[in-house]
Amino acid sequence: MTASRLSKGGRIDRAKTVRFTFDGRAYSGHPGDTLASALLANGVTLFGRSFKYHRPRGVFAAGSDEPNALVTVLSGEVREPNVRATELEIHDGLVTESQNRFPSLEHDVMAINQLAGPILSAGFYYKTFMGPAIGPLRSTRVWMFFEKFIRRAAGLGKAGIAADPDHYERMNAFCDVLVVGTGPAGLLAAEAAAETGAQVIIAEERPVAGGALLASAELIDGRNAAVWAREKAAALAGLPNVRFLTRTSVWGYYDGNVLTALEHVSDFKPNRTKGQARQRHWVIRTGKTILATGAFERPIVFPGNDCPGVMLADAVRRYAIEYGVAAGNNVTLFTNNDSAYEAARAMAQAGVNIVAIVDVRADISGACIEIASAAGAELVLGHAVTGTHAGKTLSSITVQHFNAQTGHVSGAAREIKTDCLGVSGGWSPAIHLASQAGGKPEWDEDLQAFLPPEANQNWVTAGSAAGYMDTVSVFSDGATKGTSSKTKPKLPAVDAPMFDASPAPVFEIEPAAKSQKAFVDFQHDVTADDIRLAYREGFHSVEHLKRYTTLGMATDQGKTSNIPGLAIMADVRGISIPEAGTTRFRPPFTPVSFGAIAGERYGDLRPHRLTPMHDWHLANSARTYEAGLWHRPMIYGSHGETVEQAYVREARAVRQSVGIVDVSTLGKIDIQGPDAAAFLDRVYTNMFSTLPVGKARYGLMLREDGIVYDDGTTWRLSETQFLMTTTTANAGNVMQHLEFYLDCVWPDLRVHLTSVTDVWAGTAVSGPKARAVLEACVTGTGVDNATLPFMGIVHGFIGDVPVMICRLSFSGELAYEVYCGAGFGTQVWEALLEAGKPFDIMPYGLEALGTLRIEKGHVTGAEIDGRTTAHDLHLDWMLSKKKPYIGSGMKDRAGLNDENRLSLVGLISLDNQSINGGSHIVSDAAPREPADSFGHVTAACYSPALGKYIALALVKHGTSMIGNRAYATDLLRGKHGAVEIVSHHMFDPEGSRMHG
Amino acid sequence: MAEPQSPLGHTFVPGDHGNSAGGIGLVLTERRDVSIVQVTAWRGTIPAVLTAIGDVTGLNLADKPGAGRSAGEKSAFGFAPGRYFVVAPSADLEDRLRRAIPLETGTIIDLTHGRTAIRVKGPWSEWVLSKLFAIDFSEHGFPVGFGRATLHHDIHANIQRTDAETFDLYVFRTFARSFWQTLGHAAAEVGYRVE
User: Which Pfam families has this protein been placed in (chain B) (predicted)?
Assistant: First the structure.
């Protein structure tokens, strides 16, 4: 194969030069070239090494069906492997390398695998690494030993480890009609749809529209087909109701007429404009889809068919017409159908030298004979290619007589000198998206191909995707499918010879004797013999065949291999191809980068939720951590301070004087309506209808099954309005829970719910000096014990900011929650700090908050873990006996009152060592595995108030275990220490401090 | 009176951003001078609520899903059955609505502090917003005046179209900074100005 640039032709810009490298060597091409066309023009024929056998492989196709020519694109430290050279547009500075070879593409040591062909046949892994253990030899151990070597030897490109610096984005699009493909059918379908006024999106995977017309020798309306297509596309793109997307591959078809597409926005450019994404992930919701996806030429399987220089006939044509590249000096075509003659006509016009056309058919039409004659090609009828001769590239082929009745070859072999063999085994409609959409493809005996299944959504196929293979029929079908109008469309005039679209039913040329390997799936190195082997070993179903041999499972999804593979299996089973069936295509039609799917979330996986005081926290040495989406201060650390030192300092300040903590993250729900109180009586276990206006109450919710759901305080702001607070983590769930009951269970209740979490900034002021701090800064209301008793609510001002203050305590100290409009959060926070200066007020973070509540035995999500009951948590006192509520019917089930249930206790470390959260509670003094656990630690800390390491735990027979010694064991982190089980009320059990 | 603090903080940087050399495709602003009040009707009281909103704001809304109107800085739109956002640059908006809508007709909640109002204006507004929200921003799918409630991942947004190329977005305040940054990234390719 000695490819070269033709002196003219192609849609490349010959006036400009593009420089790029492949395997470190500099090459040049022209704008409009793909990497494949540019390398071919430079005489490069060897593009890569095959997956398993490391056989030399050249370019085989000219588009997204390419199985061989996969390369890695390098951009600094970033590697993008397995890019099809046939689709990769070159640009200045493009750096590429070949794959799956060492040390070089020319001299690959793993080519030795070719000698191990019989061993590496289908099912190699299963046979070699699965089986009975023989002594110390277990097959899994053997696999573990060999795996790394096998993985290194096999496979495609190597992914890099450098972070991808590009950005990606998503686009949501809506249209009346989506047209996929811009060949003759797609263009006319889009035009017809657009003329009705419909909103139309047209998606074309290639850089330019035109499809098959781009490489056609036909005249359309008297003009070159490619020119006609370009003008038609430009006219469509100019319509206000049409969005024309090029470089956009529609890769997935989902229910509800939702399709996904990948647009190459800028990765074909040497320089990107600021803010431009590399790729864009389209989600298109359409009323109707027109799949004008064309057809893929399929090869004929024959011995030696994978050497560089053997290509699809249409690919040879496209390189000549579209890129001005002759794929060989002496091209031979091998075919079972007429389309190769149309290709020969176009190639001859472009200046490609065609030496011979080998046709399995003994009789062909006069038009075909004329074309062969005009092209100066020898016609070798009734023959088949039975072998190739190649070093790194093709030098000659052997042909033998072929009996179309028996499918056997016979007679003397004849050698034909050729450096490029274009093969055509017929055409398979590109039904991938239609198959994804659902339904079973239907076999067409004339085309020897599967046609699209019956539509189960509003989609149609048009043109060759629907089985129409000549341009006149394709135009007609496209124009008809684009509109529901019954008016006969006006079609372009086509000047082209008519051909018979039916191929001879020949899929494989089996040699009379043992010969070279004949490949079916080039990308996964699956041979025709592998398929026969699968049959002999009992894998007859196409689904089993696919998985056993990996036929059609590579990144090309078997675009060139599925039908030949099925045909071979059908032949050995003695059944027809439709009886053998086919597998269903799955997304993606072409590979999609994860970055594109992540879209704008790449590098920024989830949003950040910030309290109104967030900036203050950061400016004042807060170390934050993520709690769900929230960023919350963990500690306010001083230089050189550990987390434990910081939270102990903060918690001690609260117990001794006063501290403030940001509680804006608490869920807050506005509940309004005439039935608001009745509603709360139903969702809380305790009574709220008796709560006076201006007072708050601690409430407990159960799930329907009697398990505790959430807790929090709810404030009565008026007879008909409440402000409910929930735990931070459960805010969304509680909102949904309440909305469900209002909408579906109690629609008669007149209650409205609104999330107001973001409306209020909340600051808890806690400690013996808390009241003094408020007295120093709050105006418009008193905060003395009479005016603001425990669980009381007052309204006042801090500065000129309106505030609402509720006296409640999570810390166990005298404490208040000060709420203001979120926009004033920082002002109020700073005013409180200023007012607290005389008392050495200190901000405290979640660690200190946790410490204070552990000392008090107050529960949070660690104890309300979806398994505990109110009884387990010693909250039975909150269960009303006067009314029903959610969960009241189920809470008394025997299992929920079993005396063996875990219940809440406190733990005190007896060895003055910290206790790990999650530790199991065991009775053994010595750590052992497995231990007989009878409980677990839910939260642990150092208690500055007690001067000890303490914890809360859920323990079997909890209350009756108080006073016992046990051990907290955490074998995972190597910790085992003695603890005393105590009451969960470890500090100020009488509550005198918070009521003071 | 203290000035409410914007949640956008240091991420609000007036000036031109992104590919502004190629022109300004969008202008982004935070509307800090408006009150945002949610009005919710009971079953059967929607006409009365719409009348009251019209009386208070002068904006007469049709009784159909998502219908709305805007005039200058005043706007009102539905975003869920019986639920409306009423937005106006007046501090007593909530009081006036509360007087016009008794509890028997509906409920009122002032969300001014809880929602951040972002205006997206410019010829590329449909394009950029389509990157973030899975709704149809074309004018025939999203007519002028109408409102929508939608999501960008975890971020809820109420959106009203106020003219052919202007959308007012109302996002939860605590998510506003994160969303603002995402919006800026999405707008970068068309060049945008922050005012």
Answer: SoxG
CA-nearest of A932, A876, A938, A934 to A907 is A938
pLDDT digits (tens, 9 = 90+) for B158-191: 999 999 999 999 999 999 999 999 999 999 999 9
Chain A residue whose CA is closest to B154 = A607
Q: Is A640 left (phi over 0), alpha (psi -120 to 50) or beta?
A: left
Query: Closest Cα to residue A84, out of A655, A664, A578, A557?
Result: A557
Which CATH superfamily is A852-882+899-982 part of?
Aminomethyltransferase beta-barrel domains (2.40.30.110)
Which residues fall within 8 angstroms of residue B116, CB to CB, at 6 or more apart? Answer: B6, B7, B8, B30, B170, B171, B172, B173, B176
How far, in Å, are A625, A922, A925, A927 from residue A930 at the CA level? 34, 10, 13, 9
Q: Do A600 and B7 touch (CB under 8 A)?
A: no
pLDDT of A514 reads 78
Within 8 A of B130 by CB-CB distance, chain A residues are 171-173
Average pLDDT across each block of 10 residues of chain A; the chain has 996 residues. List them in order: 87 97 98 98 94 92 97 93 97 95 79 70 71 64 74 78 93 98 98 97 98 96 97 98 98 97 95 93 98 98 97 98 97 98 96 98 95 97 97 93 93 96 97 92 96 93 97 96 86 89 95 88 95 95 93 92 95 95 92 94 91 98 95 93 97 98 98 98 98 98 97 98 96 97 97 98 98 98 97 98 97 97 98 98 98 97 97 97 97 94 98 96 88 94 98 96 96 94 96 88
Prediction pTM value: 0.94
The reported pLDDT for the residue numbered A133 is 64
pLDDT of residue A512: 78
Residues of chain B in contact with residue A825, where contact means CB-CB under 8 angstroms, are 5
**Do residues A835 and B38 make contact, with C-beta atoms less than 8 angstroms apart?**
no
Domain A667-755, CATH homologous superfamily name and number: Aminomethyltransferase beta-barrel domains (3.30.70.1400)
Q: Residue B18 and residue A275: Cβ atoms within 8 Å?
A: yes
- Mark yes or no for CB contact B138/A199 under 8 Å: yes
Residue corresponding to tokens 């959106």: B159
Question: Is B4 in Cβ contact with A821 (below 8 Å)?
Answer: yes
What is the tens place of the pLDDT at every residue in A23-47?
999 999 999 999 999 999 999 999 9
- Whole-angstrom distance, CA of residue A161 vs CA of residue A76: 12
Tell me the C-alpha to C-alpha distance, in Å, between residue A511 and each of A179, A407, A514, A517, A518: 44, 10, 7, 10, 10
Inter-chain contact A608–B113, Cβ cutoff 8 Å? Answer: no
Q: Which residues of A touch B187 (CB under 8 A)?
A: 275
Inspect the interface and report whether the beta carbons of B189 and A275 lie closer than 8 Å. yes
> Are the Cβ atoms of A758 and B174 closer than 8 angstroms?
yes
Helix axes A562-573, A528-536, angle to 10 degrees: 40
pLDDT computed for residue A638 by the predictor: 84
**Which residues in chain A are closer than 8 Å to B97, comparing Cβ atoms?**
none
Interchain contact B131–A (C-beta under 8 A): yes
* Count of beta carbons in the 10 Å neighbourhood of residue A565: 29
Please give the span between the terminal C-alpha atoms of chain A, in angstroms, as a whole number.
Answer: 96
Q: Residues 6 or more apart from A48 whose CB is under 8 A from it?
A: A57, A68, A69, A70, A71, A98, A99, A100, A101, A105
The ipTM value here is: 0.98
CATH superfamily for domain A649-665+759-844: Probable tRNA modification gtpase trme; domain 1 (3.30.1360.120)
Question: By the CB < 8 Å criterion, does B33 face chain A?
Answer: no
Q: Which two tokens mark A847? A: 């660690």
Q: What is the CATH number of domain B35-110?
A: 3.30.70.1520
Determine the residue among B3, B5, B137, B183 to mutate to test chain A binding: the one whose Cβ has the most chain A Cβ atoms within 10 Å: B5
**The CATH number of domain A168-298+426-506+584-605 is 3.30.70.270:** no
